[in-house]
Specification:
Blueprint: E1 2-9, E2 12-19, E3 22-26, E4 28-33, H1 43-48, E5 54-56, H2 58-63, H3 67-72, H4 75-80, E6 86-88, H5 92-96, E7 102-104, E8 109-112, E9 119-122, H6 124-134, E10 138-140, H7 152-172, E11 178-183, H8 189-202, E12 206-209, H9 218-229, E13 238-240, H10 246-254, E14 259-262, H11 264-270, E15 273-276, E16 279-282, H12 302-306, H13 309-317, H14 321-347, H15 351-361
Parallel strand pairs: 4-5, 4-14, 5-6, 6-10, 10-11, 11-12, 12-13, 13-14
Antiparallel strand pairs: 1-2, 2-3, 7-8, 8-9, 15-16
């Protein structure tokens, strides 16, 4: 992986990730393909939205159908028919989310499969092996996601464990894939800096920010992003994990983030929540039932060009699969169009104007820290 920065506006950067399987324009949004598929979308549909990279879930693919089976079938790219770059997470967040079903020790994580109750174990070395079997282009270190809230001492203990695991992940990583470290430390700025400095000493191809969007107040998330912006290595890509509301993406780009992923656009789509230039439209609400208008009149996607709100409301009410397909396509297209507009605004030195217009379209005040 090569990372090139073409232009900037403050901390915000317009760049490009260059892989053997293709180039990814940044800032970039990665649709989440948990089980080797972005829900409700076939590969050609994903490409039509403008997506250049997707995310695969190490934890779920390890359990079903199994990483060794996927490797025997040619790797995740061939298995899923996706020929562009793939990032795989390490599985740490998913295991953390199991709560009492998982036990974390120095050696790794013991847990029960939620599918069949089978006892499982994952170490940093296991995570690297599994991701190598999947054949991903970007591999994430195994880390412990620090819960919110966490007192300083608990967050410090968790962060230091993640650093030791990061070193073990680095040592076990043998493939040509890019390897990203993950900054932890909870809501404590000094711990975030210690984590970042430790990861820099170990040496990684990119730097991810973990442990945000885990229930903390928005003010704390903003504070941590503000603090890290001036410390993150300028020559490496910055990835904010699991944060995906459009407003959160715009704010994070302002603070130098280059990569995003989130299940929000596809999950919301399956629940009738459509993301537009003006905010969120609930297609299930009564006003859409007889409205012969598109979801978003300014959107150029094939859904907005060909289908009315009334038809999408009908598909949702009758539980037709096509409803989830069309809704998901629109939401992912919206995100990719948003990223394209952000990139263009940075290129043309108009990012400040973009931010103002973005919030005005939603009838929201521009946050003072973005002015």
């Amino acid at each position: 992986m090569k990372f090139n920065i073409f232009s900037s506006a403050g901390f915000a950067r317009r760049g490009e990730l260059d892989f053997s399987r293709g180039k990814v324009q940044t800032p970039a949004f990665m649709p989440v393909g948990t089980n080797g598929t972005v829900k409700a979308l076939e590969v050609d549909n994903i490409k039509q939205t403008g997506s250049e990279i997707i995310l695969g879930n190490t934890y779920h693919l390890m359990l079903r159908p199994g990483d060794e089976l996927i490797q025997s079938l040619g790797g995740l790219h061939k298995f899923s028919n996706w020929d562009k770059p793939i990032l795989t997470d390490s599985g740490g967040f998913q295991v953390w989310s199991l709560g009492d079903l998982a036990k974390i020790t120095e050696e790794g994580i013991s847990f029960q499969s939620p599918y069949d109750g089978k006892k499982c174990f994952m170490s940093p070395e296991d995570s690297m092996r599994i991701q190598a079997n999947l054949g991903s282009d970007i591999v994430m270190v195994l880390d412990e996601c620090t819960p919110y809230p966490s007192e300083h001492q608990a967050a410090k203990k968790s962060m230091e464990l993640s650093l030791r695991w990061a070193q073990r992940s680095r040592d076990a990583h043998k493939s040509n894939s890019a390897l990203f470290g993950i900054v932890q430390g909870g809501m404590h700025e000094d711990l975030r800096l210690q984590s970042l400095e430790g990861l820099e000493k170990i040496g990684f191809d990119g730097m991810a920010i973990g442990g945000l969007s885990v229930g903390e107040p928005k003010e704390d998330k903003t504070r941590i992003l503000q603090y890290l912006a001036k410390h993150l290595p300028a020559e490496k890509p910055h990835y904010l994990m699991g944060v995906g509301k459009p407003e959160d993406i715009v704010e994070a780009v302002f603070y130098g983030v280059d990569m995003f992923d989130c299940v929000l656009p596809t999950r919301n789509a399956r629940n009738g929540q459509l993301i537009t230039s003006y905010g969120v439209l609930n297609i299930r609400n009564a006003p859409s039932k007889a409205k012969d208008e598109p979801i978003d009149s300014s959107c150029k996607c094939k859904v907005c060009q060909n289908y009315s709100q009334a038809y999408l409301n009908h598909l949702d009410k009758t539980n037709e699969m096509l409803g989830s397909i069309l809704n998901s396509f629109h939401n992912i297209y919206y995100y990719q169009n948003l990223m394209q507009e952000i990139r263009l605004s940075i290129e043309t030195d108009s990012f400040a104007k973009f931010i103002k217009d973005f919030y005005n379209m939603r009838h929201l005040d521009v946050p003072k820290h973005l002015i």
